[in-house]
Automatic annotation (TrEMBL), chains A, B, C, D:
SUPFAM superfamilies: Class I glutamine amidotransferase-like. It comes from Microbacterium deminutum. InterPro entries: Class_I_gatase-like, ThuA-like, Trehalose_catabolism_ThuA_prok. This is Trehalose utilization protein ThuA. Residues 6-223 form the ThuA-like domain. It comes from the Bacteria.
Length: 244, 244, 244, 244
């Protein structure tokens, strides 16, 4: 495990181009802010971005083959992501590429494809205060992260969040209106590692925060492949496989 | 939880109709043998069968709505199962219907859909001896099951079995040629319970055995819905949801 | 699994005898209120009580051998529980007896003995509102339980709760002051099942509530042994164990 | 996470001093062979050893405070390990120190203390062939390890192994006589990481093998603390903890 993962930050990049208040928060796009934070936290990492409107959404096979960890932010345009590219990304994850899914990416095609559940949840947007608690204090994703992480005003996500039970439950959020949410979850799928992290609604300047950037950098280091990438495939093996 | 689940046993029913040796082992079909065992073990249960060649593969919405637990056996005809029906079954599972996937059903569309992984594995068919060990002795699926369960001659399945880490690892198999296999696995997905159980290759009279029938009956009781069925869906909730 | 478990409700029974306000809430003791609720919910169950001041704390080997599920409430007198009896209870749990640990029982000797961690947590008692959310909607312990379960005024418990990652995370609580707490947790240890459930501070009439009684009754049914009780012990087995 | 953990290898060091055949296999002790392998694999690590016969078994508070990862090999002398030192080691683990427990260390006081179960298993010693399979191919402990790892002749351990369900099941072993064993298991307890790895009976030259040394080096890197060490302790927090 090194501090130099090759990272691609993917964003649908729709809100920032069509809504002035969002553009004001994220003049370089949400992907730009995330990439900037990763570069600052991990000076040896290679960080590039890709967006929906690019050919093949910027996710060519060559690009993915050179990506150790893919970050994913999407919201209103989930249905515009091509199924063939979703399947391509899924194969890279199952082969060992890391995937970090952010906020409303819970409803992205790639996340539903890999989870197998509806990935639905409850929500409100009333400016409640969100507080994240670390329930896995030895976990590398939480290193150097304040506990609790008081996010302040944010969109409210609530349970039941219909995802498989995670390998590690890392963060749980309290919302001042009464909800809780499992806001940091890890999964192993195939040879790949997946981290879902719920903060990051477009209306709040979440990705400029130092504490959130610490979480994302930790996640990038944690999610990178541990061994050569290879898609698990069915294999027939002859009778004398190790005695011959 | 009752001992009277309503069970549908689904089988592609191909081997038995086209290969005389298989028909000799299972004159009433694999589904017939499984259903017979369930009826004998659970006298209060309602057990019906459904097969690939029936309209809608016998899995109409009405049928699934009246099914507490669906058993699934398939092998050579996975690709002939209609995607729309796979999605229908998936919705019933996520709503709370139990699902028991058997043997080569690891490569069925419904299992891959719900797991999100390749579900691939290693295999040989050399008549090795398989022995199943109970690694979760307090689990209800193992009640009354001999430990170990010496299956004798059977097809060999080997790791790596590319499925998500299970909620409960129940059985692990030893094969005389050197392989191991996680042969009994439980999953919670949405509101539904899933059990994968690997014994049951068509060339061996597995489903006539009393010990295997005990496992399947236990699985049927375990997998049935615990509460009213309902697909998890995204929900918006007003600000004053419990204080108003 | 039946609806007729044999239950012993254990309570240190100290607050009720020495503090008038607690005695007013629980005139028959906390154990009395819990037992009453279990009898009402499970008419076929056998429910008895045991308390600290009895010989052997009421937990003789004979009593435990006839107990399918032991409930445990303790707070100020954890240190007065004899270590030999703690070890006796632990052996029964590892042999298959169910255990339901309540509220401040997180610091009981039996819970620490079985968890292996400090079982420490954060707390305040400011009359915050507690709301429990069901994060495992298909789990039998949640059947018939309102979601959310709005507890209202209660003592505040907060993370980090130093327990092993649970097999199933069932409930998560929100407190109006900002904390979250994993308030319903299941564990399998040896052949036994353990459920920790955090509501139940002595100053609040928690155990008179119908929703809480539903949880406790579900837990009793869930935690009872699934097979004959037997302590896992090391065993030497001869070379020809199944071929001889 | 770095490649320079400070490691202490602890060994009861009894077989090697009293049995000539064991001394012939491990002239520098089992601890010496393990330490030699760690030094070769992790040139930047600091590796020291400690043994039972030393004052405080070589595990003073100062020594543990300077240990990132403690390896533990014991067999016949478990009962000679002082309870106070067991408790001291447990506190360091719960505070964040890594622990790697080897082979018959499954019955060490420290492992039982941290697991809470009997840690019993089945065994034979007939020179069966052991083969370890990687069931978590993306896990850092498996990086660079052959799959399968064909151990050849070794003592047989068999299920049921009475430990809590692990966080990650990493390796499963096949024995030629028919047993299986969960031979590589990870646990998070408090802030610390624990890895149990079953190969290593004193009669076989296991710890001289390159593949086994790779596993142990990976485990050392994986188990080291991710953040400052601190024992989780109960904490009272005032009402206005983040609004004041």
């Amino acid at each position: 495990m090194t501090d130099a993962p090759r990272i691609t930050v993917w964003n649908e990049n729709v809100h920032e181009r069509h809504e002035a208040p969002i553009a004001a928060i994220y003049p370089d796009g949400i992907h730009g802010a995330i990439a900037e934070g990763l570069r600052a936290s991990l000076p040896d990492a290679t960080v590039v971005t890709a967006t929906l409107e690019q050919p093949e959404h910027g996710l060519t096979d060559a690009r993915l083959a050179e990506t150790d960890v893919l970050f994913w932010w999407g919201h209103g345009a989930h249905d515009e992501v091509d199924e063939a590219i979703v399947e391509r990304v899924a194969e890279h994850v199952l082969s060992g590429m890391g995937l970090v899914v952010l906020h409303s990416g819970h409803f992205s095609r790639i996340f539903i494809r890999l989870m197998g559940t509806t990935c639905s949840l409850r929500w409100r947007d009333d400016g409640d205060r969100e507080v994240l608690w670390n329930v896995a204090p030895g976990h590398p994703i939480t290193a150097g992260v304040p506990d609790p992480l008081v996010l302040g005003e944010h969109e409210t996500y609530g349970e039941f969040f219909d995802v498989p039970p995670p390998d590690d439950l890392v963060f749980v959020s309290n919302f001042s209106g009464g909800e809780v949410f499992r806001s940091g979850l890890t999964y192993r799928r195939g040879r790949g590692r997946i981290f879902y992290f719920s903060p990051g609604d477009q209306k709040y300047p979440i990705y400029h925060r130092a504490d959130i950037r610490r979480v994302l950098a930790n996640a990038a280091v944690w999610a990178q492949p541990q061994s050569p990438r290879e898609l698990p495939t069915v294999s027939h093996r002859p009778r004398e496989w190790f005695t011959g």
